[in-house]
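User: I've been trying to design a sequence by hand for this structure and keep getting stuck. Would you show me what you'd pick, starting by listing the structure so we're on the same page?

Assistant: Good idea, let's start from the same input. This is the structure you sent:
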């Protein structure tokens, strides 16, 4: 059996550190949320312009364990827009800044949303399944 070579375009990013300005005291929550919003817009603008097949967010979505509700809502809202029904498949894993315990993460709420199909093209690895992870609803990229 031979495998046909295939080319894919991925935008890989990490260390978004949503909430960093708020947590460090450099600026207030409103400015921190504004900067995070612009960051997500820019990431997905580039992915669209470059015709990426998927976006990979590989850790440290949030800056600290004490994530605010507004920060959670912003991240979920942006991912709903960009990874929604006709959006770019987006894969997210936790980083050390996201972990709240060995088997828990600040991203587990996104995993619940993803598993429920509320954001069709969002795939989030729960903190306890990061080493080898496959999501049954993930698109077949032909690999």
């Amino acid at each position: 059996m031979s495998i046909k070579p295939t080319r894919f375009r991925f935008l890989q990013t990490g260390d978004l550190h949503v909430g960093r300005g708020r947590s460090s005291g450099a600026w207030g929550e409103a400015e921190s949320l504004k900067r995070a919003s612009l960051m997500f817009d820019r990431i997905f603008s580039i992915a669209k312009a470059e015709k990426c097949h998927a976006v990979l967010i590989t850790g440290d979505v949030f800056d600290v364990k004490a994530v605010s509700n507004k920060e959670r809502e912003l991240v979920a809202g942006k991912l709903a827009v960009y990874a929604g029904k006709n959006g770019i498949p987006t894969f997210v894993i936790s980083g050390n800044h996201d972990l709240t315990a060995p088997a828990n993460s600040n991203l587990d709420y996104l995993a619940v949303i993803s598993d429920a199909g509320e954001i069709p093209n969002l795939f989030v690895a729960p903190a306890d399944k990061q080493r080898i992870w496959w999501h049954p609803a993930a698109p077949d990229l032909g690999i």
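That's my pick for every position. To get oriented when you compare it with your attempt: Residues 89 and 121 are 4 Å apart (CA to CA). The chain has four helices and six strands.
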